[in-house]
Specification:
Largest sheet of chain A: none
Order of helices and strands of chain A: HHHHHHHHHH
Strand content of chain A: under 5%
Oligomer: heterodimer
Shape of chain A: globular
Largest sheet of chain B: 2 strands, antiparallel
Helix content of chain B: 55-70%
Helix content of chain A: over 70%
Structural class of chain B: mainly alpha
Number of strands of chain B: 2
Number of helices of chain B: 12
Radius of gyration of chain A: 19 Å
Distance between the termini of chain B: 48 Å
Chain lengths: 204, 223
Amino acid sequence: MSELFNLIIKSAFMDNMIFAYFLGMCSFLAVSKKVSTANGLGLAVIFVLSCTAPLNWLIQKNILDEGALSWISSDFATIDLTFLQLLMFIAVIASFVQLVEMIIEKFSPALYGSLGIFLPLIAVNCSILGGSLFMVQRDFNIQEATAFGFGSGLGFWLAIVALAAIREKLKYSHVPNGLKGLGITMLLTGLMGLAFKTFIGMTL
Amino acid sequence: MSTEIQEKEVVKIKQSESLISKRRRKILVDPLDDNNPISIQVLGICSALAVTIKLEPTIVMSISVVFVMIFSSLITSMIRNYIPVRVRIIVQLAIIATLVTLVSEFLKAFNYEMFKVLGAFVGLIITNCIILGRLEAYAMGNKPYDSVLDALGSSVGYAWIILVVAFFRELLGSGSILGWKVFEAVGWDTFPTNGLFVDSIGAFIILGLLIWAQRTRNGYIEN
């Protein structure tokens, strides 16, 4: 149990999706102008990431891996479908996002109103697909995959809310013309990354 | 096959402007500077930063993106009238994912070392917003030849930015260019390499400064 907790902390802080792997940068930069919207997107990412990681884990282990299909019949023991990995993962993510959108719209129109616009965006958020690919690369089991998905989502949420808070304050300062918007945000992200780097070397 | 032939014929019949007219040159050149996908439109930053530690993987990445971009634009634009509007994102993702799988299998077969260096980031070309963004904004509504020009312009605009970032990161972070030790060659053996540039932070700062320089030059101001 404590190992899973450590994995959540590690993937949220030390291996932060944004500062360590640059994943999900597009929405990180585009949707960080206001804290409230950043918060909505962050929560949606946590939810989708912690659901698609175990889902894709099941697909990888039961369908795609070499010999994984032997649960159907022993004739399939030599089939290796790993080349379908990217297609399967993105299809799962896109359809899961669509499903979540439909469910939320049906049962909680209020939440849909505040979150609705960000859900379709999540399908092309690199951190979701990246989470699934890393989980395969690192050979997690299903509990670890879920913990990793949740932790990575948590890290993304923390980072985007923090950046949005800084950018709201930034309105009151004088920024050189060419640096306005994206430029100053990149420099800010660099400085925030420096702060996150202090977690490196901590052992859990 | 029949749809391909049909589309090509339509283009030939209506082709009154030259292959490189003024309008088409604008489509091609605009994304290189004034409408750059990375520095002006803020698309595709994820992969721009992840692979730029060294120049060599960046070159491979650029070529992969140019390839995927051009062919996905071409295919999408050819079948654009047959894609139902409701499922267009999934169709576009399927086209991109197929091409990316091709690239990743090709790398695995011919340059396995590079495949290991790039790792998951080849797969992440799928979620590169530039590709989906250009398919959605341009290839879905324009003829194949124009779409290919647009794709070429956007992907080269992307490529030159990540190549510049990679150049500075490798130079300052590892003191080399394409693995060749520059500073030792000019006799400066004690050049202090800066670990910050190997790290992600250096990438953010170099890209931030590059954007500053470029926007100051072409006068683009974001409000």
